[in-house]
Write a structure and sequence with these properties.
The complex is a heterodimer. By secondary structure, chain A is of the alpha+beta class. Chain A is built from four helices and three strands, in the order αβααββα. In chain A, helix 1 crosses helix 3 and helix 2 packs across helix 3. Classes of the chains: A alpha+beta, B mainly alpha.
């Protein structure tokens, strides 16, 4: 389904393996899948990750400063893991509980 | 600076961005009341009112004109939002999100029912019956409804301080409604439909925000808001306006006549201000939560009263001023709480 579903759906899907992932790695993968290779595309995907974390679906378990410029030099990188709430939202992607 | 400090700074930056979006929303929303008021005096809407008044009475004329204006408002908002999404290159994401009806876009369509024929139509009814100043301030109650629902439906954090702000806003809302109604009753007449319009706006926008917050969990705000307006425009142009036409109101005749330069300019101005105000509103929710986003967005009432005074020389009644001031004070109480290190807006 890569590239076919809304980006936030796909982001949640990538985290459903329940492993920890660095945001820059996920951003790079989505950039490839959705052909969003510009800096704007990169930042837009990262912002989607931030919104998912802000909404309580992902949580940051580790952070480090991007010394090597793998994402943006001097930027704070986060390692995220899906939360229980995020699992609910990704499993049915679905809002049935309202 | 250590990592903890950096994280705190990043969190603060994110919250500030959310507040900035909500403030943009308040300013643009306030400006919207200028075209929202002027449009009533622009052809063909002015002559439409006179024609329907002659056959069905003033109240029905105001409602029918409000409906047609709301229909055009939704169309120009969509035009503005398509430009916005085009510039951001989000048409692909829009298509993908629209396709996901069951898990996602149904929430935006549901939001469009409350935000459109209930809130926006209600607001135009309040403008038509009582005036823009009243309509703007009457809807100031909406964050109370939005915050309570966001808490009930999906556990968004609401602190004691936020509840305090909500209480102040309720007192402000009562001052506007009860104070205004008493003044009108003592003067012998009451525009009760206008008050119902104001209440529709407050309820509609509050419920819309809470529902949209759900859809925004898994959709991008720029895309979500466009889908929401596609829903609203469909309700007007496929359901409500044809029903009014069928029961004998000259809706389509005047709709065609609306394609004149002056009307299109005013409607275009309404579409741009409202479209971008709504984008800002939706963009603030994932960052600061529905409660805070609506709390800051509520400053639109103050902006509207200021813009209406500056550009239209409209001085509001004292009850509107006092009630509006209380609502704004309540908004400040709501948003001035310390957010601490909280990364999530939910109560985990």
């Amino acid at each position: 389904m890569a590239g076919l579903r809304p980006i936030k759906f796909r982001l949640l899907e990538l985290f459903t393996d329940e492993k920890e992932h660095w945001n820059n790695e996920i951003v790079t993968q989505i950039q490839k899948e959705y052909n969003m290779n510009s800096n704007f595309g990169r930042d837009s995907i990262n912002f989607d990750i931030l919104e998912l974390a802000s909404g309580g679906m992902l949580k940051s378990v580790e952070s480090k400063v991007d010394e090597d410029g793998v994402y943006k030099k001097g930027f704070l990188l986060h390692k995220y893991v899906i939360t229980d709430f995020g699992k609910v939202r990704s499993s049915d992607a679905c809002l049935e509980y309202v | 600076m250590d990592i903890r400090e950096l994280k705190k700074l990043e969190n603060k930056r994110k919250m500030n961005k959310g507040y900035m979006w909500a403030l943009f929303c308040a300013i643009l929303w306030g400006i919207w009341y200028i075209p929202g008021t002027i449009i009533w005096a622009v052809p063909p809407f002015d002559s439409m009112w006179v024609a329907i008044d002659a056959t069905h009475g003033g109240s029905m004329a105001t409602i029918a004109v409000a409906l047609l204006i709301s229909g055009f408002n939704a169309l120009t908002v969509i035009a503005a939002l398509l430009v916005w999404n085009g510039v951001l290159g989000k048409f692909g994401e829009m298509k993908r999100t629209l396709k996901e009806f069951h898990p996602c876009s149904k929430w935006f369509f549901l939001a469009s029912i409350f935000g459109g024929p209930i809130a926006i139509l209600g607001s135009f009814i309040a403008i038509g019956f009582i005036g823009a100043g009243f309509a703007a301030v009457a809807a100031l109650l909406y964050p109370v409804i939005g915050s309570v629902l966001a808490r009930q439906w999906y556990g968004e954090n609401i602190s004691k301080r936020a509840w305090m702000g909500i209480l102040v806003i309720i007192v402000g809302g009562l001052t506007i409604f009860v104070g205004g109604a008493i003044t009108e009753i003592t003067s012998g007449s009451i525009n009760y439909i206008g008050y119902i319009g104001g209440l529709m706006a407050a309820l509609g926008w509050g419920i819309e925000g809470a529902i949209a917050g759900k859809g925004l969990d898994i959709a991008e705000p720029d895309v979500g808001i466009t889908i929401r307006f596609l829903g609203e425009a469909s309700i007007y142009w496929i359901i409500l306006i044809p029903i009014f036409a069928l029961i004998g109101y000259p809706m389509f005749e005047y709709a065609l006549a609306a394609f004149n330069p002056l009307s299109l300019i005013v409607l275009g101005f309404a579409g741009i201000t409202f479209g971008y105000c709504y984008v800002s509103w939706y963009k603030s929710f994932p960052l600061i939560g529905v409660g805070r986003g609506q709390g800051i967005g509520n400053l639109y009432g103050l902006c509207a009263v200021i813009f209406m005074y500056l550009f239209m020389a409209q001085v509001p009644a004292w009850t509107v001023l006092v009630g509006g001031a209380l609502c704004v004070l309540g908004s400040f109480v709501m948003i001035s709480e310390e957010t601490g290190d909280a990364e999530s807006l939910r109560g985990e």
